[in-house]
Amino acid sequence: MKNRCFLLVLLALSFLAHGCATNDTLTGSDQSSFEKGAMHFVVMGDNRPADVYKPEQPYIYHKIVNTAVGLNPEIILNTGDIVLGYDALNREKAMQEFDDFEQATFPIRQSNIPLYITMGNHSGYTDFARAEFTRRYQDKETGKLYYSLDIKNSHFVILSSELVGEKTQITGQQLEWLKKDLVLAGNKHKFVVVHRPLYPKITHLEDSLNEYPEKRDQLAQVLKQHNVDMVFVGHIHINNFSVVDGLPQIIAGGSGAPLAGTLSEGGFNHFFHVIVNDGDVDFRLLPMENEVAIATKLLKKGQVQGALSFAHIAMETVPDHPMPYLIAATAYQRLNEQKELTNAKNKLIQIVGSEKETAFRLGAFALSVKQLDLADQYLTRAYNLDKESFKIIYYNAQLNQQQEQYALAMKRYQQALALTSNKYTIADINKRIAEIKKITKS
Question: Could you tell me which residues are beta bridge partners of residue 247?
Answer without folding.
Answer: 244
